[in-house]
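User: Reviewer 2 asked us to show a designed sequence for the structure in our supplementary figure. I'm pasting the structure tokens here. Could you produce the per-position amino acids so we can include them in the response letter?
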């Protein structure tokens, strides 16, 4: 099972950086989202591929017509309203933020929003309360688990390389985590964002072929080599944010032409959830 998702963000939506932290800073950067999403449309059309789009509510507020165009052909989900790390918010702040994003997306598209991904995969074991809030807001599928160490989150105790049921205080949510390859007892991510840009296609293809579950997560900026560089970033952050931009579109086109990918809605129908394990969080 290969699942394709996109986190619909602008090129400047970089986490944990003061110069790109909030809407107060975002208004000063140039708009590139139309061209980048248009590139994605072209890739999906040419390869006849389904995908799920996790959209920031701020994008929906600024560009409702773009969101409407996405929802006409593809499944949409929430990527929060203001693209902030979950563990930097209180439960009340998180609920308000996600609730606003879900309502805005539903008002624009006239469709129920049932899936969610946290910015930076930032739901950790210590933020298990987020799953209770997501369930209250009608979310049925979550894609926020990063089953390895991660600067912005990470849930290393997640039990498998694939979907399972996350259970917390009596609520259950279907979880579609990011994919990993276990090497020397470490979980290596290879199909998401900067990791996808970092590794050569031959290695991505090999690792993907060795598992029966692949969750691919791409940002529009991952395929925009002409985007400006944010000068305030450290040398390491610049490497993580800009390495591999010139080759990522070619890699994604090749992967989608060689392998069949689908969206979360279709993947859900193909899974016998009664056979999947429960991951109990406290």
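Assistant: Here is a per-position design you can include in the supplement:
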């Amino acid at each position: 099972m290969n699942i394709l998702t996109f986190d619909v963000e602008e090129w400047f939506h970089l986490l944990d950086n003061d110069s790109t932290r909030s809407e107060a800073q975002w208004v000063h950067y140039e708009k590139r989202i139309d061209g980048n999403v248009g590139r994605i449309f072209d890739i999906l059309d040419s390869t006849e591929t389904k995908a799920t789009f996790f959209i920031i509510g701020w994008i929906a507020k600024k560009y409702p017509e773009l969101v409407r165009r996405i929802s006409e052909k593809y499944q949409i989900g929430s990527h929060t309203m203001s693209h902030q790390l979950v563990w930097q918010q209180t439960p009340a702040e998180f609920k308000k933020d996600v609730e606003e994003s879900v309502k805005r997306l539903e008002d624009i598209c006239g469709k129920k929003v049932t899936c969610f991904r946290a910015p930076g995969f930032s739901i950790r074991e210590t933020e298990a309360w987020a799953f209770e809030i997501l369930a209250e807001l009608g979310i049925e599928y979550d894609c926020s688990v990063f089953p390895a160490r991660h600067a912005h989150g990470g849930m290393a105790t997640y039990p498998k390389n694939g979907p399972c049921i996350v259970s917390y205080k009596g609520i259950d949510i279907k979880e579609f985590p990011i994919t990993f390859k276990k090497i020397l007892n470490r979980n290596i991510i290879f199909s998401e964002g900067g990791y996808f840009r970092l590794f050569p296609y031959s290695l991505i293809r090999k690792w993907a072929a060795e598992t029966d579950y692949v969750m691919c997560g791409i940002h529009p900026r991952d395929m925009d080599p002409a985007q400006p560089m944010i000068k305030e970033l450290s040398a390491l952050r610049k490497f993580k944010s800009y390495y591999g931009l010139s080759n990522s579109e070619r890699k994604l086109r090749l992967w989608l032409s060689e392998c069949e990918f689908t969206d979360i809605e279709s993947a859900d129908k193909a899974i016998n959830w009664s056979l999947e394990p429960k991951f109990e969080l406290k």
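For the response letter, you might also mention the following. The chain has a mean pLDDT of 95. Residues 126 and 137 are 20 Å apart (CA to CA).
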